[in-house]
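Annex B. Sample input.
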Amino acid sequence: MVTAEFALTLPAVVMMLVAVLFAGSASAAHIAVTQAAGSAARALAAGADVGRAQEIGQVLAGSTAIVTVNGGAGVAHALVVRPLPAPLGWVGLKAQAQAAIPLEGQEGP
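Annex B, continued. Sample output.
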């Protein structure tokens, strides 16, 4: 009797464990892109050039990330997009974050 119950519950337990692992890897990717976007925008706002700010974002987000940085209208903007780790990335899911920080030494609107 115990063997039959174990055989019925084991697949559900394994699927729940796999789901928790996938959610954890997606969360870690989102934390990485959020940190990268904030750091890239902060670097640009502090006076770094666009190339250096992109480099900072790229290092923090990883080699597969796309980092876009610009500083228009007195605000430093950074957008970071990165595919999620496999197998979630296989279906095209991506982690994305953006940040906007006022440029230092300039007054806001």
